[in-house]
Design goal:
The chain is mainly alpha-helical. It has a domain of 126 residues. Helix 5 crosses helix 6. The longest helix has 25 residues.
Length: 205
């Protein structure tokens, strides 16, 4: 006779051998999150199934119920990153009915907020470094950057009918976004935010 766990629990603290405990399922999103943390802290080599499982306090068997292999996890990580830094950001900007200059300021403010988050910035920089050594990651980074540029291009072309001028402005504002993470110079008594705002005023004039 099969004894249910609920009925048995009132009598003893052990589970009879013929009662199967359901395996605790770790959702794929948890593995992706753990991979992002590992990437931010140790680069792509830190994304190892055994290490992630140990960090999460689960067995690696749960990983293989969700992903075919490490490459499948990496693909999911890159897909999630692209969605977060392109699709989600564009949706947030487009939710407003503002004119293009306001949208561009909103876009840069979102980007600035994104890079002020240590983990998010570390992931962005880790992926850019990773792309120098991995062709697949380089192709993904190129696609992400091209999508970012394409969106800015649509906004700047509403400001300037000169496509060369619009393209130059796109590059300037995108360079400001990327380079801001690497520049550690002081600004003669001004804060970095003050200088960035002044630079944006010039690019959006």
């Amino acid at each position: 006779m099969r004894i249910t766990l609920a009925a048995r629990a009132s009598h003893v603290n052990t589970v009879p051998y013929n009662v199967m405990m359901p395996a605790r399922k770790t959702p794929p999103e948890a593995w992706v999150h753990a991979a992002f943390v590992a990437l931010a802290e140790g680069g792509p080599d830190a994304i190892r199934v055994e290490a992630l499982a140990a960090t999460m306090g689960v067995t690696k068997g749960g990983f293989y119920r969700e992903f075919a292999d490490r490459n499948a996890l990496i693909e999911r990580v890159l897909n999630t990153w692209e969605q977060a830094v392109v699709d989600v950001v564009i949706t947030q900007v487009e939710d407003s009915a503002d004119e293009p200059r306001t949208k561009l300021r909103r876009l840069f403010d979102l980007a600035r907020g994104y890079t002020s988050e240590t983990d998010a910035l570390s992931v962005e920089l880790a992926i850019r470094d990773w792309a120098r050594r991995d062709r697949g990651v380089a192709q993904r980074l190129s696609r992400v950057d091209n999508r970012r540029m394409a969106y800015m291009r649509t906004l700047f072309r509403q400001i300037s009918a000169d496509h060369d001028d619009a393209e130059a402005r796109c590059l300037l504002i995108f360079s400001l976004f990327v380079a801001n993470s690497f520049i550690v110079a002081d600004h003669d008594g001004r804060t970095r935010d003050m200088v960035i705002d002044a630079a944006l005023d010039k690019v959006l004039a």
